[in-house]
Write a structure and sequence with these properties.
Arc Repressor Mutant, subunit A; 2 domains; four-stranded antiparallel beta sheet
Length: about 150
């Protein structure tokens, strides 16, 4: 992905404000032709500027009202196998490899505390996992955003 120019940033800022905007609506809002917006969007998508759109789906209506973060300590030589096994757990919605004392930070959704206990047990049962530390998410205080970065970019 190359650097974004001013037009790309305008387009991404408009999309951040209204992720459901159509190409026609974006073109009107930005004073550009539909073809220009469509070509820019296609290029940005091809170059990997967009993350998965799954993020916009709320797990609560699916029956998963609780969210937790599980810090996973792993025997290093087993990291890839542990990640593959964790990816097989449907309630795992995201995981990051970390530097420092914790190896993985796993974000999970669950139905209730008993379900969280079950999910934590599944992770603990994976060969190569040494221990976990689980924290229940109390609420999202700053949602994922890039608007401030887009506003600041040169």
């Amino acid at each position: 992905m190359g650097r974004l120019d001013a037009v790309d940033r305008q387009l991404l800022t408009a999309l951040a404000a209204d992720p459901r905007a159509t190409v026609v609506a974006l073109a009107e809002r930005l004073g550009m032709s539909r073809n220009t917006v469509q070509a820019r969007m296609a290029r940005l998508e091809r170059e990997g500027a967009f993350l998965s759109f799954d993020r916009a789906i709320d797990p609560e209506p699916l029956g998963y009202p609780l969210e937790a973060f599980i810090a996973v300590h792993v025997r290093q030589k087993r990291l890839a196998e542990v990640v593959d096994a964790i990816a097989g757990i449907p309630e795992v919605v995201q995981a990051h490899g970390l530097s420092g004392a914790v190896d993985l930070l796993v974000r999970v959704v669950c139905r209730d505390a008993h379900d969280l206990f079950r999910i934590d047990g599944l992770i603990l049962a994976i060969d190569g996992v040494e221990r976990t530390e689980t924290s229940l998410a109390m609420g999202e205080l700053i949602p994922y955003r890039l608007g401030p970065l887009l506003d600041r970019a040169d």
